[in-house]
Amino acid sequence: MTLRLTNTAKTYPDGTRALLPTELSVDRGEIVSLLGPSGCGKTTLLRIIAGLETPDAGSEIWFDSDNVTSLPVERRKVGMVFQSYALFPNMSVRANIGYGLKMQKLPKSEIDARVTEVLEMCQLQAFAGRAIDALSGGQRQRVALARAIAPRPRLLLLDEPLSALDAALREALRDELAVLLREFDITAIFVTHDQDEAMAIADRVAVMSSGQVVQSGTPEDLYRNPKSAFVAGFVGNAMRLEGRCEAARLELAGGALTLPGDGTGQDVFVRAEDVEISADGPLTARVETVTFLGTHYRIGLSGITGDVLAAIYAGQNAPRVGERVKAGIKPEALMLLPQDPARA
Amino acid sequence: MFRSKAKILQLAVTLLACAFLLVPTILSVMAGLTVNYFQGISSGLTLKWIYQVWELYADSIFLSIRLALACLVVTLIIGLPAAYGLARHPGWLSRLLEEFISLPLAVPGLALALALLQLYGSMKGFRASWTFILVGHVLYTLPFMVRSILAVLAAMDLKTLEEGAASLGATPWQRFRDIVVPNAMPGILAGSLTVVTLSLGEFNLTWMLHTPYLKTLPVGLADSYASMRLEIASAYTLVFFIIIVPLLMAMQWASARAQRIAK
Predict the structure, then answer these.
(1) Which backbone phi and psi does A243 adopt, to 5 degrees?
(2) I need a labelling partner for B35 at 20 to 30 A (CA). Which of A170, B5, B130, B219 fits?
(3) B169–A89 C-beta distance less than 8 A
(4) Conformation bin of residue B134: beta by default, left when phi > 0, alpha when psi is -120 to 50
(5) What are the tens digits of pLDDT across the range A295-343?
(6) Distance between CA atoms of A104 and A152, rounded to whole angstroms?
(7) Quick check: B179 contacting A, CB < 8 Å?
(8) Which run of H or of E encompasses A142?
(9) A169: buried, middle or exposed (CB in 10 Å: 19+, 13-18, 0-12)?
(10) What Rg do the C-alpha atoms of chain A give, in angstroms?
(11) Burial readout B229-243 (b: 16 or more C-beta within 10 A, e: otherwise)
């Protein structure tokens, strides 16, 4: 189904504006991620879509051609995976997954058949009879997903579904979740503060900041063409190069760079993987830190710009701390973005 | 095991303490089983006195059981929704309400009874019926029920659990029935046993509220010591023990279990 939000906002009784008027539409089968730092309103937006939070007057939420704005959560037919999973401790895995079907008053034989089917999809057959407190974190996450999906909801909503897991498991389950969601062939929205998670799972990412969607697009698009300093910084950790722009030339403390276009009145950003340490580079820098990360080194360079600039070094012989090195950045790797009005 | 003097001392103190607690109990029980207490065991053992207690005070036993069960039903009907409401809406107002419900714990039963008599004493039919005592027992036992359920509910993320059920299509009533009540069960069980035990054993308040036709188990006990021979009163104590001790043990077990879950 397609989801359409128009003019949807949320103001708390104390006057806090958790969500500014927002437009959002999600196509059938699309997996959209709401990405942003904590407190940006992403969870509020998800809860409004679920029906767990009442939006301000004037907001409209459409599921296909149904206006569900005033429908309570239990009648919206959404599946929800909570950050804490909210599995019912008084029921077995099987009963948890079957609960939504029971609420639909389906005959027992059909409930059994559908629960078995979902158990298989999520590879939970072995745990069907277990109590919730006898499951590991990763198993709980899968049960929560299975429970949400079993009643065949119109829309699947996931609130930070992986954040309760430890780092190693999170990465494995991230890829598993991406595969499962596509297998279910369902329209899904999931909230996360982790850009890797958003990029790995979503077809489209909506980046949020201070209660509004600041940019939305495919992960590649957001990464390569951020429209603001916030998006550049949050998606892919772009760093600002503090210097003076003169037409297509950027004067830095450590040397000068050629810009891809006229940079007057613009801020210039670069990502660590685009900073190349090579003998013929136009910039001079001092090596401050060298961190070995297995596949590559992460090197902190000072003297190029105000802050320490990070560079990725993939070679065998990394420079040593304190050494002076030459570095360069290709013009096409530099991103020109409107100046942050807060700073200017 | 008995190598050090400290250990021997410990054991001696423990045994003395046990004797201090048990000897009067055993004496009382024995008094209820001997033919003539003043002649001692040599006069022989008998169940005659227990039989007489049954003949004289069976009404008290049944009244107490009926009171305790009615008290349980009423405290459940009031206490479960109250605890749920308090757990679902934490805040200063809930704290205040919780303290207010708990007030009867701090006020002497005597004062509570006097207040009830002042308020309802003139309503003759009510004053003379067993439901008058029931009101007193409910007032006195309700805080135990509410606190016991509240402790278990407060330990879990009730709001999110309910949201989870709601997202699966459960109406508010279904959420209460399928999620809240089953998960509160250890608290409900512990609270129920406490209420029944307290109601069966309550004396202060009941003694003030009772009429000659409505003697509960403990009031009957006082009456038997005041007006019967010592053997009958002692046999009464034995009957009281037989009823209350298993309940007390079950209550201890259920409370310990609820506390474990609340952690």
Answers:
(1) -165, -165
(2) B219
(3) no
(4) alpha
(5) 889 999 988 888 888 999 888 888 889 889 989 888 888 888 888 766 5
(6) 11
(7) yes
(8) helix A137-149
(9) middle
(10) 24
(11) ebbbbbbbbbbbeeb
- Per-residue pLDDT of chain B (263 residues), as tens digits, is 557 888 899 999 999 999 999 998 888 888 888 888 787 777 888 888 888 888 888 888 899 999 999 999 999 999 999 999 999 988 899 889 888 888 888 888 888 899 999 988 888 888 888 999 999 999 999 999 999 999 999 988 999 999 999 999 999 999 999 999 999 999 999 999 999 999 999 998 999 888 888 889 888 888 888 888 888 888 888 888 888 888 889 888 888 888 777 66
DSSP H helices, chain B, are 5-33, 48-88, 92-106, 109-120, 124-127, 130-154, 158-167, 172-175, 181-201, 204-209, 217-227, 230-262
Distance, in Å, from the CA atom of B42 to the CA atom of B36, rounded to the nearest integer, reads 9
Q: Which residue type occupies A110?
A: E
Chain A CB contacts of B167 below 8 Å: 50, 52, 73-74, 78-80, 148, 157
CB B72 within 8 A of CB B192: yes
Interface-testing mutation among A53, A85, A99, A104, with chain B (most B C-beta atoms within 10 A):
A99
Separation CA A168–CA B131 (nearest Å): 63
How do strand A31-35 and strand A204-209 relate by DSSP bridges? parallel
Give the bridge partners for A276, in sequence order: A328
